[in-house]
Structures are given as C-alpha cells and as structure tokens.
Specification:
The complex is a heterodimer of chains A (391) and B (51). By secondary structure, chain A is of the alpha/beta class. Chain A is built from 9 helices and 16 strands. Chain A has one domain: Aminopeptidase (3-Layer(aba) Sandwich). In chain A, strands 2-3-6-4-11-14-12-13 form an 8-stranded mixed sheet, sandwiched between helices. A two-stranded antiparallel ribbon of chain A has the order 1-16. In chain A, helix 2 packs across helix 8, helix 4 packs across helix 8 and helix 8 runs antiparallel to helix 9. The longest helix of chain A has 30 residues. Chain B contains 2 helices and no strands. The longest helix of chain B has 25 residues. Chain B starts with a helix and ends with a helix. The chains are: A alpha/beta (391), B mainly alpha (51). Chains A and B meet through helix 1 of A and helix 1 and helix 2 of B.
Chain lengths: 391, 51
C-alpha cells in the first residue's frame, strides 16, 4: 500500500515537472526572444533611453533609440520621433517602425525611432487572452519572428498595481491596470513607476533633441470609435487635417482626424503637446485581433485580420470600420502607417520650410501591399558590420 | 515602497508554494494531490519570474 502511494506521487511529480519545464521554457524563450534589426544607410547612432534619463539604466525599459539623419546628429533642420510598440500587442506599429529603421534615408532633418517604446509589454501576453507568444513575417530570405506582446507592462517588471491609478500630474483617476499602460502615463515622472519613468525619459528626449513632431503608432479594435484616424493635439490640427487630405488623395486609402480630448489625461497626443514643444499625432489602424467578440485568437487572425465573429458584429452595425472576407492583413495596416508618416513629413515641411524633414526610400501603402512587409525586412545574416542590433 | 511590497509579495508566493508541496506530500487522496499540483504551477512560474 505504501509503495503504491509512493509510486503514484512519483508519477504525479514527474508529470508536474514535465508540465512546469515545458511551460517555463516556453515563457522564458518568449520573454528573451531576440528580434534582429538591420539598420539601413540612414542610421547615425543608436542610443539608450537612459542617455536622456539615467534612472532607467539597467531596467528592461531602457529602450534603444535609433537616430537617422544625414551628416551629424546636431542639425538645425526639423526632427521627428516615431514610437512603435507603445502598445506591444499592436504589431503594425512596431513593424512600420522597423521598416523605417531598416530602409529610411533622411535628406533633411533627423528621425528618432523607438521600435519598442515599452519593451516590458512586449515580453508578456494578456492573461486569459490566449494570445500566441509570437508571430512570423515571411521574407525573401526566410521568416522573421517577433514577440506578440501585450497592452500593459509585464507584471514581472512592475508590481503591484494600486486600487486606483492616479495620473501624474493631473491627478485624474484612471483604471488600476493603466498604471502599466504606456499610453496613460505621459508625461511621466522621474520618481514614478517603471512605465512612468519610461515616459519621462521619452519626454526628456523630446525636449533635449528639440523634436518637432511625435508620431505614436497604434492599432485599434473595430468596435472602438477612434479608428482609421489621426488623433491630433490642438497644436497639430492643421497639420493632421492637411495630411489626412493628402493621404486620401494620393495614397489610396482614407484616414480621418480626431482631436485630442482636453479632459482625457495620460495619452501621448494630449500630454506631449501640453508639456513639450512637440506636436504629437497618434495613428490608428484597424486590428480585428483586439476585438472582444473575436473567435480563435491565433497568429492567423493577428496577421490576416479575418474573423467571422467580428464580421457578424459588423452585420449588426456594431463596428466603426468595415470588415469583410478580405480582413485587415498586416501588410495593409503597416502600409497605412508608413504612407501616413510620409505624408505627415511632407505636409510638415511645406508648412515649416525652416525645419524640413525629408525622408526617402520608405515603402508606401501600395508597395507594401504588393510586395509584403517581409520584402522590406533585411536579412540579419548579411548585415554589414556594426549595423545589426537586437530588440 | 513598491520594491518592499514586491519583496513581501514574493515571500507570500514562496510560502503558499511551500504549503502546496507540503500538503501534496501529506495527502492520501489522489484527487487532492492532482489539485495541489495544478494550483502550485502558477505559483512556481511567478516565483521563478517566468510568467
């Protein structure tokens, strides 16, 4: 009897260790996946966010800042900052930023790109959301793997959450988990949480580098009214309206303009405009993967944007953006972001010829759809010396 | 303050993980044994900072 008991416990223990090792290894590999970045000819320098705020040094959110330009980093021309991965579960933003770093050439001005504005959020997925840990983009040289990520910083890096999150400095009360939301903690503070410190470091970057424009790349569920749009601070209303017209006229898709609500605090399009000299714009593309009524939450849904249940919601008039059997493929979403950035820079330069930002060699909407996002990703095995980085 | 609370939190996770292992060892009922191991899994994943 005793031997039988010992044998049973041994079998259970072995089965438990197997499950623990399997799941633990899966989570460990996902959290530590290295994503290669092959910087293009336009790269001047890669800095860390701690360059602007030493309080982030050694933390997971000490993100890389890719500086693109021509000649030196201290030009009198215009300067823009593009943020990918503020919400890591919105992959079109990260991928569009990736294509900028790997392809863009600046004829005038400087471009600062952060591929993972909240690196911690890229290392976890939503509890209970059944998210895939990663996804792959097909390229001419193979497949490149990216972390899926979540909307909020990983609880392993910032814990505990308060009962109510009180935003600094407005003291507006927000949902408790949004203290880990990169787009609710602007402008940040030096003695705050890790996510607040990250925003503070980026605010310092914007001020010290005299950034003129900040473009924060996002995606939205189709049941959310702020979608397929440019959200603009009041300082950037003219710029956003003109860019929207240019995009609709020249790029082959429509994008609207929303104005940043004055009473909604912590968001990039509100706080950057209020606390720095820069004009913040936030771009939204449709991502059915985020809709609450979605079906199976897998890599296919993430990359194709096809979901019969979200489509059914559309037939009942519950969506703010169209969805048909073509879905919202990742190439369409990445292309929309890139063409929007191109047109925003073009309009900015026309409005402010004394602070020009002229960028070339970035694929537009039609090109990304025709050739695929992966066509513009560089092979890390063939990267020139000093051009290969990891996120 | 947050670092101190985090430290206490991990102490608590370790304590409960130890309780589950102790109960698993003492149990004579196979269903309870399975239950203790299932509940133990997320505690260990957090304790080892895997999830």
């Amino acid at each position: 009897m005793k031997n039988q008991l010992i044998r049973r416990k041994a079998i259970f223990t072995a089965a438990f260790l197997l499950v623990f090792l399997f799941s633990g290894l899966s989570f460990y590999r996902s959290r530590h996946l290295k994503e290669p970045v092959v910087a293009g000819d336009g790269l001047l320098e890669v800095r860390k966010l701690s360059h602007y705020f030493p309080g982030l040094r050694g933390r997971i959110n000490d993100a890389s800042v890719y500086i693109l330009g021509k000649g030196t980093t201290g030009s009198a021309d215009g300067a823009a900052l593009v943020l990918g991965g503020s919400h890591a579960e919105e992959p079109a933003g990260r991928l569009a930023a990736w294509l900028l770093v790997e392809n863009a050439r600046l004829e005038r001005g400087r471009l600062f790109v952060i591929l993972s504005a909240n690196p911690s959020a890229s290392t976890s997925t939503r509890p209970g959301g059944a998210y895939p840990p990663d996804y792959e983009i097909p390229t001419p040289w193979g497949r490149q793997k990216f972390r899926q990520g979540d909307r909020w910083s990983n609880p392993l890096d910032q814990w505990p959450d308060p009962e109510v999150y009180i935003h600094y400095p407005s003291r507006q009360q927000l949902a408790y988990m949004d203290i880990r939301n990169q787009n609710r903690t602007w402008p940040g503070r030096p003695d705050g949480t890790m996510t607040e410190k990250t925003c503070y470091a980026m605010t310092q970057l914007i001020i010290k580098e005299k950034i003129d424009l900040v473009i924060d790349l996002h995606e939205a569920e189709l049941q959310y009214p702020v979608i397929s749009t440019i959200v603009a601070h009041q300082k950037g209303e003219d710029l956003a309206a003109l860019a929207s017209m240019m995009i609709s006229g020249e790029e082959g898709f429509n994008i609207g303009v929303e104005y940043s609500p004055v009473a909604l605090r912590g968001l990039s399009h509100r706080e950057i405009g209020d606390h720095t000299q820069a004009i913040p714009l936030l771009l939204e593309t449709p991502e059915p993967f985020l809709d609450a009524t979605r079906g199976r939450t897998d890599r296919a849904l993430l990359l194709t944007g096809k979901d019969e249940f979200v489509m059914k919601a559309g037939r009942h008039g519950l969506l703010f953006e169209k969805l048909d059997e073509n879905g919202w493929p990742i190439d369409v979403r990445v292309g929309r972001h890139l063409s929007s950035i191109i047109q925003i820079f073009k309009v900015w330069t026309e409005l402010h010829p004394e602070r020009p930002i002229q960028m070339e060699n970035v694929p537009r909407y039609a090109e990304v759809i025709a050739r695929g996002t992966g066509f513009y990703l560089k092979n890390p095995d063939l990267a020139p010396a000093g051009r290969l980085f990891y996120e | 303050m947050a670092a101190f609370i985090t430290f206490l939190y991990y102490l608590m996770v370790a304590f409960f993980a130890a309780c589950f292992i102790w109960n698993f060892r003492r149990s004579r009922n196979w269903q309870s044994e399975v239950l203790y191991l299932i509940v133990l899994l997320p505690f260990l994943l957090r304790l080892f900072r895997l999830k």
